[in-house]
Structure formats: C-alpha cells, structure tokens
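To assess whether ligand presence alters the predicted conformation, the chain was also submitted together with zinc ion. Input:
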Amino acid sequence: MHDLVIRGGMVVTAALLQADIAIEDGKIVAIGSQLPSGAEEIDARGLHVFPGLIDVHLHFNEPGRTEWEGAATGSRALAAGGGTLFFDMPLNSTPCTVNAAAFELKRAALAEASITDFALWGGLIPGSIPEMAELAHLGVVGFKAFLCDSGLPEFPRSDDYTLLEGMREAAHLGLPVAVHAESQEITQGLAREVAAQDLGAVRAFLTSRPVIAELEAIQRAALLAREAGAKLHIVHVSSGRGVVLAAEARARGADVSIETCPHYLFFTEEDVDRLGAAAKCAPPLRNSSEQDALWAQVSAGVVDIVASDHSPAPPDMKTGGFSRAWGGIAGVQSMFAVLLERGHHCRQLPLDRISSLIAGEPARRFRIPSKGRIAIGTDADLTLVDLSRVAHLRAEDLKQRYALSPYLGYSFRGAIERTIRRGETLCAAREITARSRGKLVKPSVV
Ligand SMILES: [Zn+2]
C-alpha cells in the first residue's frame, strides 16, 4: 500500500493531466488513473497540483537577526504560500555566510527551525574569494555579490576586481554568481543631488535609483561573467528594459538567468506614496509602463525565475520616516498568489509557465534534479491550488513574524489549499500542520 495517494487533481505539467499521484518514502512512485489505495488519501478533485514552490531569494535573517524574521516563522509563511524549499541569502543574518564556520552556524539554525527544505547562498565580498571553494564543498547553491551598498556594513559591495576574480573562481567551482545590479556611482551621486532638493522622501528615494542604474550594472556584470566564463544570475530585475538588456547579453553568449519579484509585477511607484515604507525596496518599484514591459517579458518566457526577495524588518524599522526605513518587502506568502491573480487570471499566463517560473527553472538552474517537477522518482513536493476560490489577505493570515505586508487587504483569485513537502502536509486550509523539520538541499555534482 502506498503511503499517500492524492486523487484526481489536475496535474500541472507541460500538458494538463487529471491523475492520481502515489507517494512512498517522500517520493512520487506513480502517476496515473485509479491507483491502488494509500494509507493516507487526499481528495484533490477540482484542484490543480503544482510542484512545490522554490523561492531562490529570501532573507530569513537567522542566525543573529531572528527578531527581524527567523526561519521558524519565515518557513511557515513560505509553506502557507505554497513553498517547500527556499534559498537563504548570505546577508542580514549574523554572521554573513562568507566562510565555512558561518555556513555551519546557519545550517544548524535552519535545520532546527525550518519546516520547509532549505539551501544556502554563499557571499562574495572583497577578500572572501579564498573561502569560496570550501563553501562550494559544503553545498552552497552559488555566491551573491552586490554592485552597490547592501545596507549592511558587514557585507560590502564588490568592486570590479572582486567581481571578475570571484566570477573566475565560481566558474572553476561550477556555481553561479548572483548579483544585485544597481550602479553605486549613479545611485550615490543622485542621492547626494536629491538631498539638496525638496522632493519629499519617497520621490527622493525613487529618483536616486533610476532604471539606468540597473541597466549599467546588468551590462557590466554580464560582460565580466562572459569574460570569466561564469554563470550569472541577476536577482530582482525591476524593469522591462533590464530584462531586455540581460537577454541581449545572453544572446551574445553570456550564461545569464533572469529573476524578478512579485512586487515589481503587482505594485508601481504610485503605490509607494500610499503604502510608504511597506513598499520600500531596492531597486525600487517602477512606473506602470515599465511594469507592462516587465510583464511582457514574463509572458514571452524571457524571465526565468520569480522569487520573493522577502526581506522583513521589525515594525520600528519600518516607521519613523521613509528615508530612514529599512528597504525590503515581506512578500514570501503572497508570491504564488500574485502570479495566479495578475498572471493567470488577468493576463492568461499559462499554468505550466507559472510552474516553470517558481519551480522548474529554480531547480534546473541550481541543479536540484530531485525537485521542481512532478515526475516519478522526484521528491513529493506539491502544492494544491483552487484556481477559482478568492483569497483575501488579512493580517491574521500571515505566518511571518510581523504582520507587515504591502499585500494586506488585497484579494487573489487562486487559493493555496495544501502544501506538501516530501509527502508530509506542511499546511492545509491555512493551518500549519508540519510535524518534522526541513533538510539542507545541495546542488547535484556536475
Ligand atoms: Zn535580497
């Protein structure tokens, strides 16, 4: 007898297929009709079955800044939003993940607290190149670098020398380098200029971080990556023009993957005036024509991955003036819902395209063949979605540490009904039911 059989759901693969899914020891062992019964049975008729969402970019800030979020609360929010695996960024935790000792501290903390599976990004900062081989050996998915100030003095930005040599080392190790692409010179210069004007805090911030600052940094990172022979992952591309530029670099032979975030697809800069610090992030939200261009690139299949860049802070760091407020949007629980509402329902984005953006490409790009798709032999990481039910996001629904989210009060067509990680239901009917902890996931050896 199978451990678990999920009955009659519409399975989201290249072709939509109504089928039963049988699970044993946390893995999918059969997909078909009228499979024999399981010890546990889940009725999925009327629901769509997606591969579990993989969030390749977020900040749970553990260890060291769990008062900002923490993996216990963060992973519950991820699971409630349909997620089964996250990649934690190397900064905002203390210490930053830039050497083996810091990796081990974070691994132990996440293994203790997280209900979803997890993977770790390593950091690339000036002076950290000699640590990269050991981090690769421990299982990081790649190395994250900033081209502008990160906001944290302990994670300085990479100068061009660090970036080039770090990319050469990453290429040697077979791992991607992820970049936060904004020009330090342009953003810093404009910030000085607008400080002398009377624009108001919101306009001053938006004006200091224009699209051209993103374009310049994407262009430079792509050039260096191609020279180094490195895989480049451009995180949180905020503009349609940024995607076009990255795609041009790809056409010229650079190995580039392009990520955007739900907030760039949902909000525009007008929302920053209304929502204030809850909608402050870098790169900032853009105008509606830039957002339309970004959606066009998502629909055309040029954007590879959508990730939350969930980066929360305590409420007192989000109040007391926009200019001093922490930049970061807490959206881990709403990412799938944004793609269903604004992508599938508003723009007819095909369901298998959504599945690719949140599971298929994350697993393929970062070499995790056991996850990201629904196939015999893969991990039973599955998300059951009711496409027609409308979900309203209320503060009491948020599982994250603080009920701060720019998505509060919005309605989404498409509700996450159940999240299953390796055969175990983590969340059902908006309640967390997880019994066990998640595991560290490493890239497969090439
Ligand atoms: Zn981030």
